[in-house]
Specification:
The protein is of the alpha+beta class. It contains five helices and nine strands.
């Protein structure tokens, strides 16, 4: 009896799905085209089919890690990457490799999965959501960077190469792009120590312009934590540390009471 009921339920579901699909297409065909014709273009129908069969945003494929080297990285960018990456593992006297003081922090194209209150975002919005510094697919055109963290010293360092789309003053990086990378690095640093946190205040002093396409280091230091408040200081220097480009202080507010 139960098996018979299941067969009937499945048949009804298939019947309703067929009716809904047929009705949808009929309504589309009755809709006026912008030119005034009572028709619907092939591209319109194809786009609807594309939406209905689009894969779920939570696919099983592995996400892309944007903090790994690519062909747009300059020799200086690669050198600094290797300099910090090699310190992520330490070789013992016996030849074994163990975790070092430094660790590379992966960087993906988006973080957001849930809206406030635990509600799912629209699937279409979620599928298009992208971290601001990772919203350019073209390699080398925007923010190329990798962040390394030293938990023992409570510091982070970011190797940053600015692409041509970040131009502000002729031949130099836009101040807003500099503020963005500072906010991203210090925010990542705060999150690593205290869990999810939001920027409450960011004070920036620009000391000298950054040439477009050059590689700089963004140093982030955890100053103190008071309750839910996280205080961080930051410096942007040339790759060899000889020139100070920007100084900043940041205050982040931890979203939850529990610490990480």
């Amino acid at each position: 009896m139960l098996r018979h009921s299941l067969h009937i339920t499945r048949a009804l579901c298939r019947f309703m799905a067929c009716k809904l699909s047929t009705g949808l297409y009929r309504n589309i065909l009755k809709t006026k085209h912008p030119t005034g014709d009572m028709r619907c273009t092939r591209s319109c129908l194809q786009s609807i089919r594309g939406v209905t069969v689009a894969p779920r945003p939570f696919s099983s494929s592995q996400p892309r890690d944007y903090s790994l080297p690519n062909t747009s990285w300059s020799s200086e960018m690669l050198r600094l990457y290797e300099h910090y990456n090699i310190m992520c593992e330490v070789e013992t006297e016996r030849g074994d490799k163990i975790k070092g003081q430094w660790s590379r922090l992966p960087s993906y194209n988006r973080f957001l999965k849930y809206a406030p209150g635990g509600q799912y975002l629209s699937k279409l919005l979620l599928a298009k959501a992208r971290l601001f510094t990772r919203n350019i697919e073209e390699q080398g055109a925007g923010f190329e960077y990798v962040v390394f963290e030293n938990k023992q010293e409570k510091t982070c360092v970011c190797v940053f190469q600015a692409g041509h789309l970040l131009e502000g003053p002729p031949g130099h990086v836009h101040g807003g792009a500099i503020a963005t990378i500072i906010d991203s690095v210090t925010g990542t640093h705060a999150t690593c120590h205290s869990g999810p946190a939001m920027t409450a205040n960011l004070t920036i002093n620009y000391r000298s312009p950054i040439p477009l396409g050059s590689v700089v280091l963004v140093h982030s230091s955890l100053d103190k934590i008071e309750g839910r408040k996280i205080f961080i200081s930051c410096q942007v220097t040339s790759s060899d540390g000889s020139k100070l480009h920007t100084e900043a202080t940041a205050l982040f507010i931890r979203l939850f009471e529990t610490t990480y």
